[in-house]
């Protein structure tokens, strides 16, 4: 009952954050809500015993992505431009969510000992780790061999996000914007000076 209450609270908090994020128009508040959503999702993954996924979500979703979005706010207006809701993407999103909710009924019960992953997959990993992979540590063999491509993909995502943040903080993406602003300000100053000379 205690774990059910924790899961229900986290899911309710995720739903509230998502609804509030849809209704706000200030981009700074939207970035903060996005970081809060990722952090809450990471807590949900910890409760579900998916600590590796929680670590990636906290590092990329709540950490690097939030820093990247905050740095991007210096290049865009403070508030979102008003626009109409496109019906087709909304219908696709609702249909996808409904399909996922229906598919949950076919999944095995969480933590069930007779789940396929515990009956077929896990025993093969445990028994074959030392013989097939040559690594006595099962966790290391799973992350480095059985799930090697998945681990490589996560590493590439984190590395790419870190490089993007460094490029933005270094001012690479803001340099053209600053030059355009400087040219525009220079032109405006010249126009004002020309008008003052004509008036004099």
Model description:
With 200 residues, this protein is mainly α. Helices cover 78% and strands 0% of the residues. The termini are far apart. The mean pLDDT is 78.
Share of β-strand residues: under 5%
Largest sheet: none
How far apart are the termini?
Answer: 83 Å
Overall strand count: 0
Give me the secondary-structure category. Answer: mainly alpha
Helix content: over 70%
Poorly predicted sequence stretches spanning 5 or more consecutive residues: none
DSSP helical segment count = 8
Helix/strand order, N-terminal first: HHHHHHHH
Mean pLDDT: 78
Query: Which descriptor suits the 3D outline?
Result: elongated
Radius of gyration: 25 Å
Quick synopsis:
With 200 residues, this protein is mainly α. The protein is built from 8 helices and no strands.
Question: Which features does this protein show?
Answer:
200 residues; single chain; elongated; mainly alpha
Topology:
Blueprint: H1 2-23, H2 27-47, H3 51-72, H4 87-103, H5 116-133, H6 138-146, H7 148-170, H8 175-199
Helix pairs in contact: 1-2, 2-3, 3-7, 5-6, 6-7
